[in-house]
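Purpose: get a first structural picture of the assembly so the mutagenesis plan has something to point at.
Setup: two entries, given in the order below. No constraints added.
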Amino acid sequence: MLPRERFAWVWMTALVVVLGLYFAGVTSMHYVHPDPSFLARIGMLAAALGTLAVIAIVTWLYGRWRDRDELAEDERDRFIEWRSSRIGYYVLLAGLIYAGMVIPFTQQGWDVVHAALFFIAVAEIVRSGIIVLGYRRGWHA
Amino acid sequence: MPERHLTNAIRALRFHAGEMTQSDLGQRVGVTRQTIAAIEAGKYSPTLECAFRIAEVFGKPLDQVFRWER
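Result (C-alpha cells, whole complex):
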C-alpha cells in the first residue's frame, strides 16, 4: 500500500472515530448538563482536535520513516490528489453554506460551530475516501 | 458513442526487455512502481508525456505500446 493511501485510510478512520466520539459526547453531555460551561465545551473540542492532530503527525512521521524510498510524488498521485481535493472542496462549500447561511437563522453559538465542524469532517472524509478509491479502483482522466 | 478503453503491451514488452522490473521501468520513466502496475492493469491512463516516455524506453512507436480498443 502506498504511503498516501495508508495516510488516507488512517485519516478517514480517525475522523469517523474521534469526531464520532466527540459528537456522541456532546450529545450525551447535553442530557446530563443542559448548559455546560464554556470551559467544558472548549476542553472537549480541544481534546478531539488535539487527538486528530497527534494521529495525523504520528502517521505522517511513521510513513516518512517506513516508506522513505517511495515518497516521490508522480502524475498519478497528483491526479488523485487533484480529483479528491476538487470533490472535497464542493462538499465543504455546500456544507459551509448550509452551516453559515442557513443554520444561524434557527440556531446559534455552539450549534453553528458543531455544524461547521461536522461539514468540515464530512468533506475531509469524502476527500480521503476518494483518495482510497483512486488508488484501489483506479480512475481515468 | 461506444465505450472504448486503453490497453497496453507493457507486460510483454518488459518480458522481451529481459524481464525488466516495474520498478526499473518506473525509474526510467519517472513514476513509481505502483503507477506502472496501475497502468499495466488498466487502472490508470497515463498522460501523453508519460506514454511517450514508456514507448521510448522500449524503442517502440506509441501505437505498439498503447491501443485504444472497443
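Chain A has a mean pLDDT of 89.
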